[in-house]
Amino acid sequence: MQREVAVRKSGLSIWQSRKRRKQVAKAVAFVLLIAGSILVLLPLVWMISTSLKDMSRVFVFPPEWMPDPIMWSNYVDVWRTVPFGIFVGNTAFITSIVIIGDLISASLVAFGFARLRAPGRDVLFVLVLSTMMLPGYVTVIPVYWMFSKVGWIDTFYPLTVPSFFGGAFNIFLLRQFFLTIPRELDDAARIDGCSSFRIFAQIILPLSKPALTTIGILSFMWNWNDFFGPLIYLNSPENYTIALGLNFFRGVRSSQWNLLMAASFLALLPCIVLFFVAQKYFIQGIATTGIKG
User: Is the dihedral of CA 140, 145, 149, 153 positive or negative?
Assistant: First the structure.
């Protein structure tokens, strides 16, 4: 009897010791995550704080994290100094077209690679993936020459039309997600007389909202903040995007850091709002994509 009691006490002490170690490890992980989050958020907090300061208070030491007074007029001055509304409109138009093109083209191609059987399908998929190994900067000159020959320079066409021809990364991401959807759904639909396109439109796409949302968010982030493409193809100020507009604003008001930070925060705000609104689908899409090879 005493031996059984001793064994139980020993087992209980071991369980309590393991539980304490897990709690300590979890607490350490939380502390590290909080410290890392603070380090990551500091530049953003400083940008927001600076955007609300008077220029004379920007570089005071020690830094003032809470502006006094709060200069909301800085954001109004940004819109008055440069045609910021035009820049936002151009960027929103380009980004919307690119997102539509990416979703349509990538989903159609990925459906073919994931659900349809054809000779050489896997070889063709490898060729598509191999294009990801080619740096985009290698093709800048020939692509620019091609667009210049058709008269697309200083238009939105070079920034929007290529999205309708599919991107290797988007195709790969959607294909991996489509492979996780049971094929029994396709077989049942074909028994009922559904065509491949109807299966794609009414079965695959509704089940792929997380992956499609992930593609949409990544496409939005990339194109909203893109500087290189608009810098090459756009020449007229009325066609500038936000990235070019910020560079233009820096040339006009290079010494006014408070206004520059206000303009930068306005450019960053849609990305922050979009991520927090769609983060559930974004995280779910990343987590469930690529489970099946």
Answer: positive
- Banded pLDDT at 147 (limits 50, 70, 90): very high
**77-288: CATH homologous superfamily?**
MetI-like (1.10.3720.10)
Does the pLDDT at position 38 exceed 70? yes
Question: pTM to 2 decimals?
Answer: 0.80
If DSSP codes are grouped into helix, strand and coil, which group holds residue 289? coil
Upstream peptide bond of 270 is cis (omega within 30 degrees of 0): no
Q: Using CB atoms within 10 A of its CB, is residue 54 exposed (0-12), middle (13-18) or buried (19+)?
A: middle
Tens of pLDDT along 88-142?
999 999 999 999 999 999 999 999 998 888 888 889 998 988 888 888 788 889 9
Torsions phi, psi for 211 (to 5 deg): -70, -40
- Taking the C-alpha atoms of residue 279 and residue 282, their distance in angstroms, rounded to an integer, is 5
Structural domain boundaries in the chain: 2-51, 77-288
The predicted model gives 12-29 an average pLDDT of 77
Integer Cα distance of 204 and 192 in angstroms: 16
**Which conformational region is residue 120 in: left (phi greater than 0), alpha (psi within -120 to 50 degrees), or beta?**
left
Residue among 161, 162, 160, 156 nearest 235 (CA): 156
Spacing of C-alpha 266 from chain mean position: 17
Q: Per-residue pLDDT for 8 more than 60?
A: no
Burial classification of residue 215, based on how many CB atoms lie within 10 Å of its CB (0-12 exposed, 13-18 middle, 19 or more buried): buried
SS3 181: coil
Give the separation between CA 285 and CA 219, rounded to whole angstroms. 14
Q: What is the pLDDT of residue 6?
A: 54
Per-residue pLDDT at 77 exceeds 90? no
